[in-house]
Every structure is written in C-alpha cells, then in structure tokens.
Specification:
516 residues, Uridine Diphospho-n-acetylenolpyruvylglucosamine Reductase, domain 3, binds flavin-adenine dinucleotide, disordered N terminus, Vanillyl-alcohol Oxidase, Chain A, domain 3, 16 helices, 8-stranded antiparallel β-sheet
Length: 516
C-alpha cells in the first residue's frame, strides 16, 4: 500500500492521500484471540489514541489494544497470531510512550501492545558493575529517580526522558553523553525478548548474541523487548551547565571535535544552530530556568547564523573548586566569542530532565500536540562543512519552526554488531531538525512547507553523495531500506526470517509486509 513518491515520501503521505485509515467499525480480531486466557486483557474499545503519536502525521487505527499484566500475555498473543499463519494478516506493534514521529508504533487493523500497562519493580544490583533490571515499558525518568535512591544512574541518555526503554533501545538513544559512552544501546547487558514466533528468549553478548544485537537498534523488527538490564554508574549530584556562541562554523566544529577526542573533557557535549531568530518554539528545549545560559538562545544574531556549543560538567558539592579550575582550563582552549559565556549550576535531575519542563510550557499553549515533521541525520565529519554551507546557508533561511541540534560522536563507541547503521567514518555528526508545524497553516510554518524543506535537505544529501544516514529512519519502500542498511541489509533480512518469519512485528516501520 506504500507507493513511492520519492524515496522518503509515501503514497500514504498526507499530501498524496489521506493517511487516516480506519476499520469502518469492523474488527478483524478472531474470536479465538479474544478468548485467550490472559492476566491482562485485549480490548477494541478506546483504540483511537493508538492511532496517534508525537509526530501527529500518520494515523492508523488498530483492531485492538493488548493491556498486558504479564510477559506471558505478550508471548501468548504473539504465539497465537503466529500459529494462525500468514493468512490472518494480523500484525502486532509494541507501543512505548508513543513518541514516534511517523506511525512506527502503530499497527493498521492489528494489535497494539500498551507496554506501559505492565508495571514491575526495578531490581538493582550494586557492586563493581552496577545495573538495574527494568520492564521495557518503563520511562527513563522513572529509572533516573529510582537509581538515584541507590546513588546510581544510567550513563547514556536521550535529551528527553519521557520515553520508554523499549522505544529508545529499538532506535539507539542518543544525547550529549554518547561521544563517551556510546548510545543507550551500548549500555545494556541483557534483554528479555518475545520473538515474532511467541518465544520468550533471554539474550546478551554471551547468550543468543545474534538476537541481542539484532534487537538493539532493530526498529522492533525481531521481537518485543520485555525487560532490559541497564548498566549504571555512580551518580553525580550537580552539573555546571554552559553555553558559548560561535559565528564561525569551522571553529565551532573544531572545538566540538577537539572536546570529544579527549578523555579529560566535559561530561556532556552538544550544540545547536541559531538562524537569525528567537521565539518560543525555537527556544523551548533550551529555556532553562536559571539566569544565564538561556540568554544564549536569545542572543541577537543580527541576521547572522550563530552556533551554540552546549556543554556540561558533572560534580559533587565538595569538588566545586576543582571543577571550576577544570572548566576554566577547558574553556581557555576554545575559540568561542568571549563575551558569550553563559553558565549555570543545577542539580543532576534538573539537567537531565531539562526538556520536559519546556515541553510542559508548550503543552500549556497548545503547541505540543501539533504535527512534528522531524528530520534526524547522521553526517560524516568530512562532509559536515559542505552540509552546513548548503543546508544552513541556502535551504533553511530561518529556523523559526524549531531547534536544530548539531553535535559529533565517536564511531568507536558504537558497537557495530547492533542493527543500528551509522556513517562510515570515525566521527559523525548528529543533526536534528526538530520542527513543529502550525495546524492549518499554509505558510512557512505549515506542515507541507516543512516537509518539502526536509525533502530538499534529503535530496541534496543524496545528490552530493554525502554518505548521510537517517536516525529514526523513515522510508516506505524496501529498496530505500536496503540502501539505508547497505552492507548490513542481508543480516537484517536474515534476522527477520529467523525471529519474525511472518513479519508480524512493528509493521509501522514499513520495512517488511505481512502477506494477507
Ligand atoms: P514508541 O514510539 O512507542 O515506539 C518506537 C518504536 O519502537 C516502534 O516501532 C515500536 O513498535 C517499537 N517499540 C516500542 N517499545 C518496544 C519494545 N518494548 N520492544 C520492541 N519494540 C518496541 N531520541 C534520541 O535518541 N535522543 C533524543 O534526545 C530524543 N529526544 C526526543 C524528544 C522528543 C520530545 C521525542 C518525541 C522523541 C525523542 N527521541 C530522541 C526519539 C525517541 O527516542 C523515539 O521516538 C522513540 O521511539 C520514542 O520512544 P517511545 O517509548 O515513545 O517509543
């Protein structure tokens, strides 16, 4: 049902045809499934929310939602659907917190599993290599709060913590700690997975390693993650949170690359682009409470494009003097505009949960539930200047629709055995265009305009052969997916036929299609 327009636009794209699919009231859930004995329940009522996500662009109505109360509920339902064979056409999607952008957690006429309905206690293991065992539907913010009670915390984060473990581990989980610790998928010791055949399998680097690495970054294609063992470290109490501005892109990237190349550096390194404007949408992720660094995003850029380096150093209160010296030393090596140093001191929780607070403000103004045509790219270091020149210089003439993040990561910290694909260079940049579209606007802040702009960026990358990979990838033809995975495509297909041979799982990714 997904005809290619260009590589990245589907026929079920809003401007090609309506993407709202409904069941016309008739459920295709077979009665045998309805009578399965479950600890939780399967329901065809109140299913509308499962046809929406943060992207708010794709809407596919399922037939039913499973509210599991045990792992065996998930295994039983999938096993039953598997045993029905390919003719049933039924698919299954795990839904974490529904923060996908293009319907990835939806299942048209299928079963959506509400992963958040199963709550299980977290189990902490302290000692030399501390970890926590969590349910995959757990939000990272809850893991943070619980871990802190043990003086511990996960090492690698996302910028926003109201996402589930299963959702981010199916992608990568990237933030300003990834240069040092790798993404979240590199900080997991063990998973428990229900495959597309309904088997419950424990996997790790040592046990069922093929499934373990397949599922990490596997876009939900090989199994439903039910539990994860997350690696922890001693948690710092406080954070020095700093922003400095650059007008020269080369100096900005040189400094970023220098900082991520060193062991003795900041604990968090990100950055963003300021294209001649300020405003709520542009600032929402950056609007943090205390005094100073906020000013960085209000900086009057006089029509110029500025680049903001955002860095943080963790510390405990008894280390204040040492940390101040360290920061002064690191900053003295950087080439930012000297008058633009913005620094504040916040608690570790405040720092990690920074985006949530700004999100709440947007919610109050009704600006959270708008369409979000986001585009996330991984750009090889050798191409980042060409990319920036054309994209920030020509394609985007103002950035009024949302923040644009840009920061580098070290490929050596990304385990290349996972399903996640990254550019073929030692250092690559994550560039995130986090746009919000104004409902019913036909102007430059409307959905059609922003999608067309994203398309121009992708077309440029393709034409200039930049070797860019999409993060949170979205394609709707197998040909485009094959190109995305490149040399890893054969392994991906082989894993699919091993663990989900009927293509029951995560149909919203539009990689494989179940016969019906
Ligand atoms: P969902 O949207 O519910 O699911 C995502 C995909 O994973 C679907 O295909 C779903 O079927 C599958 N899935 C969900 N749970 C499981 C499971 N248990 N087992 C198997 N498959 C499963 N990403 C980053 O890396 N860094 C960021 O800083 C970042 N910030 C974000 C900020 C916001 C405001 C938003 C909306 C997204 C952000 N993301 C970020 C992207 C985010 O990581 C992904 O969208 C992620 O998929 C959302 O998690 P979720 O729990 O809502 O998953």
């Amino acid at each position: 049902s997904c005809i290619m327009n260009r590589n990245h636009l589907c026929s079920n794209h809003p401007f090609v045809s309506s993407i709202v699919s409904s069941n016309s009231g008739s459920s295709i859930i077979p009665s045998s499934l309805k009578t399965l004995k479950l600890d939780g329940y399967l329901s065809s009522d109140n299913i509308n929310h499962a046809a929406n996500d943060f992207g708010n662009i794709y809407h596919h109505l399922p037939s039913a939602i499973l509210h599991p109360k045990s792992v065996s509920d998930i295994a039983s339902v999938i096993k039953h659907i598997f045993d029905m064979g390919s003719t049933s056409g039924l698919t299954v999607a795990a839904r974490g917190h529904g923060h996908s952008l293009q319907g990835q957690a939806q299942a048209y006429k299928g079963v959506v599993i509400n992963m958040e309905s199963l709550h299980q206690e977290m189990h902490f293991h302290t000692g030399e290599f501390p970890y926590v065992d969590v349910w995959a539907g757990e939000l990272w913010i809850n893991i943070l709060h619980e871990s802190l009670k043990h003086g511990l915390a996960p090492k690698s984060w996302t910028d926003y913590l109201h996402l589930t473990v299963g959702g981010t581990l199916s992608n990568a989980g990237i933030s300003g700690q990834a240069f040092r610790h790798g993404p979240q998928i590199n900080n997991v010791y063990q998973l428990e997975v229900v495959t597309g055949k309904g088997e419950l399998i424990t996997c790790s680097e040592k046990q069922n390693a093929d499934l373990f690495y397949g599922v990490l970054g596997g876009l939900g294609q090989f199994g439903i993650i039910t539990r994860a063992r997350i690696s922890l470290e001693p948690a710092p109490r406080m954070v020095k949170w700093i922003r400095v501005l650059y007008s020269d892109f080369s100096i900005f990237t040189e400094d970023q690359e220098y900082l991520i190349s060193s062991q003795d550096t900041f604990d968090y390194i990100e950055g963003f682009v300021i294209i001649n404007r300020t405003g709520l949408l542009n600032n929402w992720r950056f609007s943090f409470n205390p005094k100073d660094p906020l000013q960085a995003s209000h900086f009057n850029s006089d029509g110029k494009t500025l680049f903001c380096l955002e860095i943080a150093k963790y510390f405990n209160p008894d280390e204040t003097d040492i940390v101040n010296q360290k920061i002064d030393m690191l900053l003295s090596e950087l080439g930012y505009i000297q008058s633009t140093l913005f620094l504040s001191e916040v608690s570790y929780v405040e720092f990690l949960d920074r985006v949530h607070i700004s999100g709440l403000k947007l919610r109050e103004k009704g600006l959270w539930e708008v369409p979000h045509p986001w585009l996330n790219l991984l750009v090889p270091k050798s191409k980042i200047h060409n990319f920036a020149k054309v994209v920030f210089g020509n394609i985007l003439t103002d950035s009024s629709t949302g923040p644009i993040l840009i920061y580098p990561a070290n490929k050596s910290k990304w385990n290349n055995r996972t399903s996640m694909v990254t550019p073929d260079e030692d250092v690559f940049y994550q560039v995130a265009f986090l746009s919000s579209a104004m409902p019913s606007s036909t102007g430059t802040d409307g959905l059609a305009y922003i999608l067309a702009q994203n398309e121009r960026i992708l077309e440029f990358c393709e034409a200039a052969n930049l070797g860019v990979k999409q993060y949170l990838p979205h394609y709707c033809t197998q040909e485009a997916w094959r190109t995305h995975f490149g040399t890893q495509w054969d392994v991906f297909v082989r894993r699919k036929s091993t663990y989900d041979p009927l293509a029951i799982l995560a149909p919203g990714q539009q990689i494989f299609h179940k016969a019906s």
